[in-house]
């Protein structure tokens, strides 16, 4: 009679956990509240993003100004002439990028098996996310639909030649 194979399963809260050949370091020196704050941020930013996205969709696609057919260069220029809409769009951009970046960070942690791969994927993720946030913020706050000294043939129809 053969003895049944005994599977060895590590205690989930042990310091060194190994699952399918992948070792996870859960030493107390690495314990901090970052993951709890990241989890909380995902929930709060998700709720705020839902509100911001529906307002964004209503104003840009459904609103009384003519809906989706009215969205053009002049619509965006008029909208970004108001500091309220600049801050609104910046908040939407930042929250969406940070929310998405945090979600991808978790996916990288879950699926990248080697430390070196995980490190470089996160470097690429954080670099591109920072670039998009910086570039988007600059576009929102430095947008000038009628720059002084520009060729009048290249300006939008609502700009006055001056």
Automatic annotation (TrEMBL):
Assigned keywords, A-Z: Heme, Iron, Membrane, Metal-binding, Transmembrane, Transmembrane helix
Residues spanning the membrane: 36-59, 84-107, 119-143
Location(s) in or outside the cell: Membrane
Superkingdom to which the source organism belongs: Bacteria
A Pfam family of this chain: Sdh_cyt
Major localization listed first in the record, in broad terms: membrane
Alphabetical list of Gene3D superfamilies matching this protein: Fumarate reductase/succinate dehydrogenase, transmembrane subunit (1.20.1300.10)
Name this polypeptide is given: Succinate dehydrogenase, hydrophobic membrane anchor protein
Organism of provenance: Kocuria aegyptia
């Amino acid at each position: 009679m053969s003895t049944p194979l005994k599977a060895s399963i590590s205690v989930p809260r042990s310091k060194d956990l190994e699952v399918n050949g992948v070792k996870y370091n859960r030493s107390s020196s690495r314990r901090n509240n970052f993951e709890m704050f990241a989890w909380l941020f995902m929930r709060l930013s998700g709720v705020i993003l839902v509100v911001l996205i529906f307002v964004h969709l209503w104003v840009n696609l459904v609103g009384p100004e003519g809906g989706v057919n009215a969205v053009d260069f002049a619509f965006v220029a008029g909208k970004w002439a108001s500091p309220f809409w600049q801050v609104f769009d910046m908040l939407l951009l930042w929250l969406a990028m940070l929310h998405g970046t945090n979600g991808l960070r978790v996916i990288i942690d879950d699926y990248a098996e080697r430390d070196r791969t995980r490190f470089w994927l996160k470097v690429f993720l954080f670099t591109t996310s920072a670039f998009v946030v910086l570039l988007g913020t600059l576009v929102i706050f430095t947008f000038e639909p009628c720059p002084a000294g520009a060729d009048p043939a290249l300006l939008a129809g609502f700009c006055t030649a001056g």
